[in-house]
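The instructor's notes for this session suggest beginning with a concrete chain rather than abstract definitions. Hand out the sequence below and ask the class to guess, before any prediction is shown, which regions might be ordered.
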Amino acid sequence: MAFSKCFRASAHPSPATRREARRRLIGFCAGFVCLGFPWLVGTAHAGKEKRIRVTTTLTMLSSIAEAIGGDRVSATSIAAPGYNPHFIEPRPSDILRLGRSDYFIHMGLDLELWRGPLVEAAVNPRLLPGAVGDVDASVGIDLLEVPGVGLSRASGDIHIFGNPHYWLDPENVKRMAEQFAGRLAAGAPGSSDLFRENLRSFSRSVDEHMASWKSALSPFQGQRLVAYHNSWPYFAHAFNLRIDLFVEPKPGISPSGSHLEGLVAQMKRDEVRIIIVEPFQPRRIAESVAKRTSGKVVELWQNPSGKDSYIEMMDRNVHTLVEALRASRRGSAP
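After discussion, reveal the predicted structure:
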C-alpha cells in the first residue's frame, strides 16, 4: 500500500512526510466507510460473543489485557513490536477490528497520533474519546520530562505532554493493570472477581520480578549509558541508571557528523561503553560509535513479541543489559 512509503521509509519521517501520511490515511478511511463499512460493523455486533473483544495499539497493552482478562478477553494489537510505535502502517483489517471491539486500549498522550483517524473510521461509538470503551493507559501515571513553554519544531519531536514511554517502569504497569481491571469489571460485573484475582496475581508477579531485576542491576546504580532515542527515562528511573546521552542530537533528528564526534569524545571521557538501540533504529550508526569507543551496542525491546509477555520482555531486557554491563567492566565486549 501507499502507506508503507510514508511510515516505513525511515525510523523518523520528516514532518512533511507525516502530514502526507495522515492526509492519505484520512482519505483512505473516508473511502472505506463510504464503500459500505458501516454495514459490516452492524453485522459484526449481530452475533453475541462470550469473550470481551479488546484492541490495543501496542503488544505490551494486549499482553497486560490478556493477563487481567484471562479467558474472558480476546486481545489483539495493531502495531507490530518491531516497528516504531509513532509511525504505523494502517490496514483495512485494523478498522474492521476496531468496529467489532468492546474496548480500545492505547497509550494516550501523543505517542500514537495515527490512532485518531482509525477510531473515526471504525464507526464504533464505544471507542470514541471519553466513551465507555476508550481506555487511556496514561491515566494516573506521573509523567517525566513534561516540557515547559516556548516549544518549537527546532526542539525536535518533543512530546508536549511529557515522555510517553512510561510503561518501561514496572510500577507504572501495575497502575495500568489496575485501571484495566476496573474498566473490564465495569463492563462485565459477573467476571469482576476473576479480573481482581488476575490483577492480584499479575501485581505479585511484577513485584517478584522487580526485586530480581533491581538486584541484578544494583551493582551498576548510577551507571551512565547512551540511547539512540530518548525512550528510556522511566526505565532509568526505575533502576537508578543514567541514560542521558543520545545518538540523536534532538528527538527524531538524525545525527550530524559533528554531533557524533562530540558524543564519541564524551563517551571516551566518561568511559561510557553501552549504546541502547531498539529494533527499528539504524544500528549501523550506533555500531560506528561503539567501534570508536570500545563500546557495545545492546538491543532492547519496548514491546513484547507475540511469544512473550510484558514480564518476559522486561526480564530479557534486564538480563541482556546486565551481561553487557558486566562485560564492559571487564574491559571487553561480550
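Then share the key points. Residues 109 and 161 are 6 Å apart (CA to CA). Strands lie at 52-56, 73-77, 103-106, 134-136, 224-227, 242-246, 274-277, 296-299.
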